[in-house]
C-alpha cells in the first residue's frame, strides 16, 4: 500500500490534523487575527491567538506520532490482514472523501474570507495594521546630540537630523519651525515640517517632533504630502543665517522667564508695523535695511516668551536681500494654483482658501491649526490654533457652506470612526457636533456603528449629510438639518 511507505500512515495523520475541532479553533484564530489587524486590542486578542498556535502545535505533534505508530502496526500485519483492511477501506472510501472534502472547503473558504479582510486592513489606513505598517516604513527616531542653542546652535541640531535622515541640502518650511528652550539654552521641544528635493528631484518630507523632557531622540515621519507653491518664501537656510548673527543668550536675558521660544515661517509681511523688528543683513558689504515703510517684509525669526506673546513683545529678526525679493516677486507673478486636498483644504470660488495645517504628530495621529488665505494661497494666517479642541487624529474633511459656516472632520482608530466639528464664525471658534443614532440603530452593532460623518452640503436651502461606518462597514445613512448643522435628523438609508 502506497500510504504505508516510510512507516507513516498519512490517512491517520490527516484524520487527526484535519477534523471539526481543529476547524473550529482555526476559525477562532482567523477571527481574532482579523480583529487584531482591524481594531487592535493586543491584550484581548494576542493571548487567544497564542493559545490557538499552541493548540495547532500540539495537534501536529500528536498527528505525527499517531501516524508513525499506525504505520508500523500496519506494516507488521500479514498480507491477508492487509487485504481485509483494504476491502474495509474501499467500502468507506466515499464517506472518507466526502468528510475530508467538506473540511477542506471550510478551511479554504474561511482563509479566503478573512484573508481578504486582513489584506484590506493593511491598506489605505483602513485598520490598525495599516497604521502599524505605516509606522514601520515611515517613522524614524534620531538622537539629538547638539541640544543647546547657545553652545551648539540650531544649525548643528539640523545637521544631526540631516546626517541621519540624508536630508536634501536645500530645505523648506511647510508649516513652521517652532523651538522652545530653557534659560541655559537647552532645547526642550521642536515641532516642524520640512521638505526638499533630493539629487534625483524626488520630493522628501520630514515631520519632526522632539520633546526633550521625554527623550533625547526626535521622532520623524517621512513621505508626507505638501504643496511646493511659493517655496522660495519658505527657505530654511535664512533662519540659520539670521540666528548665526544673533546673540540669543543676550537677547532673552532681559525677560528672565523660565522658557523661551523661536518661531520661523519664512517670509512674512508686516505691513507698516515695525514693533519689535530688528533688521539683519545676510549679504556682506550691504548695510541692513532699517527703513520702516508701508511694506515691511522679509525672512523673519521671532524670539518670544511662550504664552506671553501679548504681554511681552517678541523680538523679530528680519532679513531681506535683493535676490530674495526678486525671487519672491517672480514666484508671486507666476500665481500657480495649489493642489486641493479635500481632507485638509477648501477653496471658495472667489479664491479665498481655508486649510487644516499639520503642526505636530504622535503615534500616527496629527494635530492641526486652521489657516486662511485671501490671496489664492500666496500668504496664510492662522485663524484657530486648535480647531479640534485638543483632539489628535487624521483630518478627514473640511467644507464651508459660506464664509462663516463650516465643518471639519477628524478620524480616529485607523479610520473606523470620526468626529464632526462646526464653526459659525469663520473658524475662530469650533464645537463638536452631537450626532444622534439613526432609527436603524435601536440595537446598534458595536462592531459596525454609523460613526463616520462625511462633509455636510447644502441642497434646496437644507443641509444634508451622509454618515457611514468608516473602516467598520460599507452602509450609509442620510441626515438633514434645518438649523445650520446644530442638530440633525435621520432621513433614509442610502442603498
Q: What descriptors fit this protein?
A:
single chain, 495 residues, alpha+beta, nine-stranded mixed beta sheet, five-stranded antiparallel beta sheet, 29% strand, globular
Which geometry do the CA atoms define? Answer: globular
Query: Would you tell me the overall average pLDDT?
Result: 80
- How many strands appear in the DSSP assignment? 22
Helix content: 25-40%
Tally of individual helices: 10
Spatial strand order of the main sheet: 1-5-4-3-2-6-8-9-7
Estimated share of beta-strand residues: 25-35%
Alpha-beta content class = alpha+beta
**Sheet of most strands:** 9 strands, mixed
Low-confidence stretches: 1-6, 285-294, 331-338, 438-442
Q: Cα distance, first to last residue?
A: 59 Å
Computed over alpha carbons, the radius of gyration is 32 Å
Could you walk me through the main structural features you see in this protein, from its secondary elements to its overall organization?
The chain is α+β, with helices and mostly antiparallel strands and 495 residues long. A hairpin with a 2-residue loop joins strand 11 and strand 12. It is globular, with a radius of gyration of 32 Å. The protein starts with 9 loop residues before the first helix and ends with a strand.
Q: What's the short version?
A:
The protein is α+β, with helices and mostly antiparallel strands and 495 residues long. The protein has ten helices and 22 strands. The strands form four sheets. The chain has a nine-stranded mixed beta sheet with strand order 1-5-4-3-2-6-8-9-7. Strands 18, 19, 20, 21 and 22 form a five-stranded antiparallel beta sheet that branches. Strands 10-11-12-13 form a four-stranded antiparallel beta sheet, with no helix packed on it.
Amino acid at each position: 500500500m502506497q500510504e504505508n511507505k516510510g512507516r507513516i500512515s498519512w490517512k491517520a495523520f490527516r484524520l487527526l490534523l484535519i477534523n471539526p475541532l481543529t476547524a473550529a479553533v482555526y476559525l477562532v484564530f482567523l477571527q481574532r487575527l482579523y480583529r487584531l489587524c482591524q481594531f487592535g486590542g493586543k491584550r484581548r486578542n494576542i493571548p487567544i491567538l497564542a493559545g490557538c498556535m499552541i493548540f495547532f502545535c500540539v495537534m501536529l505533534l500528536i498527528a505525527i506520532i499517531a501516524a508513525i505508530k499506525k504505520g508500523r502496526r500496519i506494516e507488521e500485519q500479514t498480507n491477508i490482514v492487509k487485504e481485509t483492511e483494504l476491502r474495509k477501506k474501499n467500502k468507506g472510501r466515499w464517506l472518507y472523501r466526502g468528510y475530508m472534502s467538506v473540511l477542506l472547503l471550510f478551511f479554504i473558504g474561511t482563509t479566503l474570507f478573512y484573508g481578504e479582510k486582513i489584506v484590506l486592513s493593511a491598506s489605505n489606513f483602513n485598520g490598525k495594521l495599516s497604521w502599524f505598517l505605516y509606522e514601520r516604513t515611515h517613522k524614524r527616531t534620531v538622537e539629538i546630540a547638539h541640544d543647546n542653542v547657545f553652545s551648539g546652535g540650531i544649525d548643528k541640531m539640523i545637521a544631526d537630523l540631516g546626517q541621519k535622515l540624508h536630508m536634501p541640502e536645500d530645505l523648506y518650511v511647510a508649516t513652521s519651525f517652532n523651538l522652545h528652550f530653557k534659560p541655559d539654552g537647552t532645547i526642550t521641544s521642536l515641532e516642524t515640517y520640512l521638505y526638499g528635493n533630493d539629487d534625483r528631484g524626488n520630493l522628501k518630507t520630514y515631520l519632526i517632533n522632539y520633546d526633550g523632557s521625554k527623550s533625547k531622540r526626535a521622532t520623524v515621519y517621512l513621505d508626507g504630502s505638501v504643496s511646493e507653491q511659493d517655496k522660495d518664501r519658505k527657505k530654511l537656510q535664512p533662519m540659520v543665517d539670521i540666528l548665526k548673527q544673533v546673540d540669543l543668550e543676550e537677547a532673552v536675558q532681559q525677560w528672565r522667564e523660565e522658557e523661551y521660544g523661536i518661531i520661523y515661517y519664512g517670509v512674512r509681511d508686516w505691513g507698516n508695523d515695525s514693533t519689535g523688528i530688528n533688521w539683519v543683513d545676510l549679504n556682506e558689504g550691504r548695510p541692513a535695511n532699517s527703513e520702516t515703510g508701508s511694506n515691511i517684509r522679509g525672512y523673519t525669526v521671532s524670539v518670544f516668551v511662550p504664552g506671553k506673546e501679548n504681554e511681552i513683545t517678541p523680538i523679530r529678526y528680519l532679513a531681506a536681500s535683493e535676490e530674495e525679493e526678486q525671487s519672491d516677486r517672480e514666484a508671486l507673478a507666476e500665481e500657480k494654483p495649489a493642489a486641493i486636498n479635500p481632507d485638509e483644504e477648501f477653496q471658495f470660488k472667489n479664491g479665498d482658501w481655508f486649510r487644516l495645517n499639520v503642526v505636530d504628530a504622535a503615534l500616527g495621529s496629527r494635530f492641526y491649526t486652521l489657516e486662511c488665505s485671501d490671496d489664492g494661497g500666496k500668504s496664510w494666517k492662522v485663524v484657530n490654533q486648535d480647531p479640534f479642541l485638543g483632539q489628535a487624529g487624521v483630518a478627514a474633511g473640511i467644507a464651508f457652506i459660506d464664509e462663516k459656516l463650516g465643518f471639519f472632520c477628524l478620524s480616529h482608530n485607523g479610520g473606523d470612526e470620526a468626529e464632526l466639528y462646526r464653526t459659525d464664525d469663520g473658524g475662530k471658534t469650533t464645537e463638536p457636533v452631537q450626532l444622534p443614532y439613526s432609527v436603524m440603530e435601536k440595537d446598534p452593532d458595536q462592531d459596525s456603528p454609523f460613526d463616520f460623518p462625511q462633509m455636510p452640503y447644502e441642497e434646496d436651502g437644507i443641509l444634508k449629510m451622509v454618515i457611514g461606518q468608516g473602516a467598520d462597514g460599507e452602509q450609509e445613512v442620510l441626515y438633514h438639518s434645518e438649523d445650520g448643522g446644530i442638530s440633525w435628523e435621520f432621513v433614509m438609508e442610502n442603498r
